């Protein structure tokens, strides 16, 4: 009996040791993955952070970065966020989630769909959000601190482009009222085409924005939106061309959208001294050049005073 007891005890001890070994191994593996590679101003950058950022760069830039490149990018972000805090510029989860949702919308996705797309590539959404947060902070900081030096004057714009005197380079201010003939989302192609023909017929009845307001307010399945004002530089080329061909007071040709059949009542069109599309493009380009130069210079200065410890 004593012998049997000793054997059982030994077997239990061996089994316990094996279980402990497995447990310890399981604990060590994630610990290694989370091991710290760099400490920036007291904040760690782990090997897992580096791995995640590498995957994100591969996914977004379609190239494979070096480990050094990834580490430097992560260091820059830590430095940017801390510098922002020094000037009271911080973004919480609400603002970052909003930016994430806006990015999703531009990609024609929902936030959940974008999250799943990232995860399918082995990238946590927090990895992208961390980058977005740093850029939000830094952009706000640079534009706020160096606003005057980033201004682009009219002379700078005019000297950077060839100024022409034809109508294409005249900027207009458009006052418009969008109108819509509502159609069900499950409407058949035939029903949509019928509504489009109705919209075409209505165009001949509208001679002013007041006519459009009276007509579409009286329709059960029609609606007119509030007046909006845009300049040539605010609008895409295709829409500018349509508006320039439309007589003031009349409706633009009908367009099928998710809401139904939409048109725009052109209330007024007048020349303005604000930027033409050509000037706006040149101004934006010059601003971006100034911003990138100032951002690079500022980041270099901030990094010099940062405490960076490589492990």
Give a summary of the structure in a few sentences.
By secondary structure, this protein is of the alpha+beta class. It has helices at residues 2-33, 47-61, 67-86, 93-106, 111-120, 125-145, 147-150, 154-160, 189-203, 209-217, 237-245, 277-304; strands spanning 36-40, 43-46, 171-182, 222-224, 228-231, 255-256, 260-272, 308-310. It has three domains: 1-33; 36-145, Triger factor/SurA peptide-binding fold, CATH 1.10.4030.10; 171-272, Chitinase A, domain 3, CATH 3.10.50.
What this model shows, in words?
The protein has 311 residues and is an alpha+beta fold. The chain has three domains: 1-33; 36-145, Triger factor/SurA peptide-binding fold; 171-272, Roll (Chitinase A, domain 3), CATH 3.10.50.40. Helix content is 59%, strand content 15%. Strands 3, 4, 5, 6 and 7 form a five-stranded antiparallel β-sheet that branches. The chain has a three-stranded antiparallel β-sheet with strand order 2-1-8. The two termini are 57 Å apart.
Q: What descriptors fit this protein?
A:
single chain; 311 residues; alpha+beta; Triger factor/SurA peptide-binding fold; Chitinase A, domain 3; 3 domains; five-stranded antiparallel beta sheet; three-stranded antiparallel beta sheet; 12 helices; 8 strands; 59% helix; 15% strand; extended; disordered N terminus
Biggest sheet, in brief?
5 strands, antiparallel
Number of helices: 12
* Beta strand count: 8
Radius of gyration, in Å, reads 30 Å
Distance between the termini: 57 Å
Question: Structural class, from secondary structure content?
Answer: alpha+beta
Which segments are poorly predicted (pLDDT under 50) over 5 or more consecutive residues?
1-32
| CATH classification class of the largest domain | Mainly Alpha
In the CATH scheme, what's the topology name of the largest domain?
A: Triger factor/SurA peptide-binding fold
